[in-house]
Amino acid sequence: MWKIAEDQLRLDKKQRELLDAYNDILKSKLKKDLNPAGTPERQKQISAFIVSESKRFHDTSKLGKFASVLKKGADCILKAEAVISAASQPCLPASVACAGVMLVLSLCVQADSQRDVLFKGLHEIPDVIYDLAGYEKLHWTDTQDLVFKTSMTDLCSHILEFLARAACHLQKHPITRTLKDMFNQGEWDTLLSAVEAAEARVRKHSAVNGWNSIRTIREAQEKGQLAQQNAILSKETAARSEKITAFLQKLNEHAWPGGASYEYSKARVQRAEEGTCKWFTNHDKFKAWESPDNPNSGSPLLLLTAYPGCGKSVLSKHLIDTVLPKPEDRAVCYFFFKDDFEHQKSATGALCTLLHQLLITSESKCRTSLADSALRRFEAMGKESFLGSVSSLWKTFTEAALHTDAGEVICILDALDECEPNDRNELIKAINEFYRTPQNQASCLLKLFLTTRPYGDIIQSQFSYAWGHKLPEIRLAGEEDDVANDIAEEIKIVVDKRIDRICDTFHLTKQKSNLMKTNLGAAPGRTYLWITLVFDDLLKKTSGISKEYIESFVKNPPKDVNDAYEKILNRSKTQGLGNQDLKKTRNILQMIIAARRPLTLGEMSIALLLPEYQPPYQDLADEMESKEGIWDTIRDCCGLLVIRVDDRLYLLHQTVREFLV
C-alpha cells in the first residue's frame, strides 16, 4: 500500500525530487548506512530508530507549547510500528512512514521556527497511520474493493508528501528554495485538506463494513502493551540520564576543582562599556567569520592579537554575552585562560569545559546523540586516559561539534598565551591539524575564535607556520590604521564618560572638566585597562581627596599601566599607613599570587590572622572579620589591584602579576 503510494508520487518530477531530499534527510538521521531494502535487517534498523527517537518525548517540559501534540504523536507511531512489526511479513514502507513521522516530530523539537499548520497535521497524521496499519494488516489482502484501495493509497500519498515537505522545511534543505512554490502557506493548506478528505473516504468505507469495532478491540488490547512499553522506556531514560549526569560532573570536576566554575572565570572580566567593541563587530573579517548565512565567505578560525590591557578579554565576554548567542540553533562555548591558577592554564581543563558546555546545550534541546557518543569514548578509554589527553578531548569535542544534531558551534578561547606552554603547543597543533583538511576548513559548523598577545612563539612559530598568508588575524595593536582609528574613537567615548562621572562625583566645574579631557584625553598609549585604573581609582578614593589633588593628578597622569600600579601602591604611603599596614598589603598580594586556587574572603581573613597567633588557634574565630570587613581592609591596602567575584579574590589583570613578580 505505502509502496504503491510512493510510486504514484514519483511519477511527478517535482514530487520525485522532494522524496529524494526527504529520504536523504532520513538516512542522515539514521547515522549509518541503510541495510538492503526488503531485508529483516532493514526492518529492524527502522524499528530501532523509531524506538530510539521516541525517548526524547518522555520529558514534556522540554517540548514547548506543542508538547501534548508531540507526545501523543510519538505514542501513536510506537503503537503503529508495533502493529506493523507483529505481522508475519512486516511492511517496510509502512515502517519507513512511521520513521518519517518520528523524524518530523524530532525536527519540530529542534526547530527555531515552526508553522502551526505542521502541528495541525501532526495532530492527526499519527492516528491515521495507526489506523492504516490495522486496515492494511486486516483487510488489504482480502478486500477486492478497488475504490477502497485507491482511497487508502491516495491517503498514503498525501501523508508521504506532507512528511517530505515538513522534513525539508524544518531541516532548511536547499530543495525548499528550488521548489519554493510547494512551501507557501496556500500549498500547505491544500495538502492538509487533501489528507483530511482522503481520510474521510477511508473512514466512511470502514464504517460501512463494520471495521470500527475491530479498532476498538485492538486499542483495548494494545493499551496494556503501550503502558508496559512506556514503563520500560521511562526506566531506560532515567538510567541514561543518571549516567550522563555523572559523566558531565566528572568533566566539570576535572576542569574546575575546588568549587570554581567557568561562570566565575567570565564574571572576573569587566563588562564592555556601552557603545564599544563596534570596531570589532563591524570588521569585515569578523562579519565573514560569524555569518551563518554565508559559510564560504570566511575562515572558520579567527585570531585576535593584542598587547596587554587592550581589551581582549572584555571583547570576548561581550561576544559571548551579547553578540554571538542570537541565532537559536547556535551553541557558544568558551574558556578564559589565566595563568594565576593551575586549572585555568590547562588545555585539558579548557577542553573539558568546552565539551561540558556543548553537551549541556545539546541535552537541553533533547539532542542526546552527542552525549551518548562522548560517554561511549569515555567508558572505553577510562577516566584517567580520557580526561588527561588533549588529543582525545579535542577529538571528542570536534566530533560532537560536527554531529548533524549539534547545529552551529562557536568556540572562544581567550588569552591563549596564558595557557601552560606544553599544553598550548599541543592544543595549537590539534587546531592546525583539524583545520588543515579542506573539508573542515570549508565547514561552517565549528567556528573558533582565539585571542592572544602577539608573541612570536605563538603567532610566527605555530600559526603563521601552518597557515602562511591565509592566517585570518585581526591585530589590535595599531598596525592597521582603520582599526586604530576606530579604537581611538571608542576610547575617546569611554574617557569622556568617565570624566563626566568624575565631575559629577566631585561637583567640578565645566572648566575643570575641559581640563581633564584635555590632559587625560591626550595621554599617549591609552588602553582600556589604563582607563579603568586611572578613573576607577579616582572614583573609589573619594574620601580625603580634594579638587586640588584631582587637578594635580590630571596634569600628571600615569604614563602606562605599570606606572598606574605604582601610584596605586604608593598611595598607601601618602595616606599615612604605617609599616604594619604596608606589611599587610604585601602579605595579601603574596598570598593571592601564591594560591593554587582563588582564596575566599573568609580564608583571607584567617590567613591574615595566623602570624599573630600560636597553635592551636582557638581564639581565631573570635577575631575573624566579617566578609565586608575583610574586603574593606583589602581595598584600603591594595586598591584596584585586587577584585572580588562571588566572595573569591583575584588580581585585576594578568599585568598585575607581571608587575608584582
UniProtKB/TrEMBL annotation:
Under Pfam families, the record lists: NACHT_N, NPHP3_N, WHD_GPIID
Q: Where is the NWD NACHT-NTPase N-terminal domain?
A: 2-204
- Please, which domain of life does this record's source organism belong to? Eukaryota
Q: Which residues cross the membrane?
A: none
Name all GPI inositol-deacylase winged helix domain ranges: 583-661
Domain spans labelled Nephrocystin 3-like N-terminal = 275-453
Q: Keywords on this record?
A: Repeat
Query: Which Gene3D superfamilies does the annotation name?
Result: P-loop containing nucleotide triphosphate hydrolases
Can you say what this protein is called? Uncharacterized protein
